[in-house]
Amino acid sequence: MSIEILVGLPHLNNGPILDRVRRLGQPALVSANALSRWGMRDGVREWQGWRTTQLANAYGLSSLALDSAGFVATAAYGGFPWGLGDYVALAASYPFRWWASADYCVEPEIARDRAEVLDRISRTIRANRDCLMLGRDAGIERTFLPVIQGRRPQDYERCAEALWGPISRQRRVGVGSMCRRDVRGDEGVIAVVEHLDAILPASTRLHLFGVKGDAIPYLLPYAHRIETLDSQAYGISARREAHRRRTRKSDRFVADHLEAWLRAQNAKLRAAPARLPIAAAPAPDPAPTDPWEAAIAQAQAEIRDLIESGDLLGPVL
């Protein structure tokens, strides 16, 4: 088995980038945010729906997957500006290779302490369940991609256990909060993949969201487990090069960087696999010794259970 790279697209405008990806026959991924339509109401910028007409430009691509834009939505807007019903309607408007569940990322700049990481894992579990329910109603359950979240490898296991049914049925799962993660270490990319390889059903394949190219040699030993990964790193290199040359970062300029970047990634996929030493598991959270702190921790755990079950805050719509 080989790992496939999905090219992250900045937009679906007709032009050099789409033409290049189409000519290369490379599968692609687009973020829901790239299809957002915005307007002004009372002087305030407001989300006003999807630019679904742009999806017609994607025909002829090898395949197109849909990401929920969890990190961008949180970092740029403080949360999803659209509801899950809106998102699933977008997913139903095109024959996507797969559409990822909405999820609540836990990068350090988003989830600043352990309690917030755990809160966002619970919200991710609830969002998966609601997306699946809405996707079933829309007739697109078959292409649903469950997404698990975590900071530590054991966090992903906890998330996967809560979503074991959908993961087992879909036979693939997306792994979030990978983009800004170190390759090495007890919370690194390889530690997470290694742990998931040990605990998931043998038939379940992984999609790794936004993994850096530096990780590829160390991911090759897990090619039996990893189906796909995506990246839009070529856009960063194009921006830096345009700045260095003091030239405009046109779509044609970006497309040239895309092709060169893709050649480099494919060369890494053909290289000999590399292995890192097995990282020791992170220490579990210490139990609170103060009775008041213990009571707060217990209350937080109960609230998370209610969020996951849908009994608190209702479905995440």
Helicity, as a percent range = 40-55%
Specify the CATH homologous superfamily: Queuine tRNA-ribosyltransferase-like
* Strand content range: 5-15%
Number of helices: 11
State the shape: globular
- The side-by-side strand order for the widest beta sheet comes to 5-2-1-11-10-9-8
In terms of per-residue confidence, which ranges show pLDDT below 50 for 5 or more consecutive residues? none
How many domains? The number is: 1
Describe the structure.
- Keywords: Plasmid.
- Residues 62-243 form the DeoxyPurine in DNA protein A domain.
- InterPro entries: DpdA, TGT-like_sf.
- The structure is a single chain.
- With 317 residues, the chain is of the alpha/beta class.
- The protein has a single domain, classed as Queuine tRNA-ribosyltransferase-like (TIM Barrel, Alpha-Beta Barrel).
- The protein contains 11 helices and 11 strands.
- The chain has helices spanning 16-24, 70-77, 84-91, 114-138, 153-162, 164-170, 189-199, 216-219, 233-245, 251-270, 291-309, and strands at residues 4-9, 28-31, 36-41, 44-50, 64-67, 99-100, 144-145, 147-148, 172-175, 205-208, 226-231.
- The chain has a 7-stranded parallel beta sheet. A two-stranded antiparallel ribbon has the order 3-4.
- It starts with a strand and ends in an 8-residue tail after the last helix.
- 38% of the residues are buried.
- The mean pLDDT is 93.
A few lines on this structure:
This protein has helices at 16-24, 70-77, 84-91, 114-138, 153-162, 164-170, 189-199, 216-219, 233-245, 251-270, 291-309; strands spanning 4-9, 28-31, 36-41, 44-50, 64-67, 99-100, 144-145, 147-148, 172-175, 205-208, 226-231.
